[in-house]
Write a structure and sequence with these properties.
By secondary structure, this protein is an alpha+beta fold. It has one domain. It has one helix and five strands; from the N terminus they run αβββββ. It has a five-stranded antiparallel β-sheet, with helices on one face. The chain is elongated. The N and C termini lie far apart (about 110 Å).
Length: about 160
């Protein structure tokens, strides 16, 4: 006598395992994308903070008298905490390879003299380089921070007389 097999309409173990595997792959992709978006947002936030610290120094330098500036060729390094508080201010030899603590911002200011070739004016009759006793400074202001192993960098150049 032959046995009759009943029609099974349920889910077998192999189908359940395949479905669980697919759900796991989709969940992993979603979590990975979410983590990348969080890192990107953190970097953007830190980039904005670096820019704020650079602009804070620009405002400070614009309102300062150039007589108070260091001599040409001097480089000043200012390090800020994540809340914007100044940690330290030192004179350094270079702005290359700054050792910025995680979350902090370093702002490096180079005090340079200006050559005639750097100051070309559209209206040369009215705007000229200062002569005799008036110094013109070129200030390279570089802000830098490190977020999640990546360097966030902003640079601005201003001229001050």
């Amino acid at each position: 006598m032959m046995k009759k097999f009943l029609n099974q309409t349920g889910v077998n173990l192999v189908e359940a395992m395949v479905a669980m595997g697919l759900i796991g792959i989709v969940a992993y992709a979603f979590m990975s994308q979410s983590q990348n978006m969080n890192q990107s947002a953190t970097q953007q936030k830190q980039g904005d903070f670096v820019e704020d610290m650079v602009m804070k120094n620009v405002s400070r330098l614009k309102s300062a008298k150039s007589e108070t500036f260091p001599s040409y060729g001097s480089i000043l390094l200012r390090e800020y905490q994540s809340n914007g508080e100044l940690l330290q201010e030192t004179t350094v030899g270079s702005c290359d390879n700054l050792n910025v603590r995680a979350g902090n911002v370093a702002v490096c200011i180079k005090y340079l003299s200006v050559s005639d070739s750097e100051a070309e004016f559209s209206n040369a009759d009215v705007m000229k380089l200062p002569k005799l006793g008036q110094k013109l400074y070129k200030l390279d202001i570089i802000g830098e921070s490190v977020v999640a192993g990546r360097r966030v960098f902003r640079k601005l150049i201003i001229f001050k007389r």
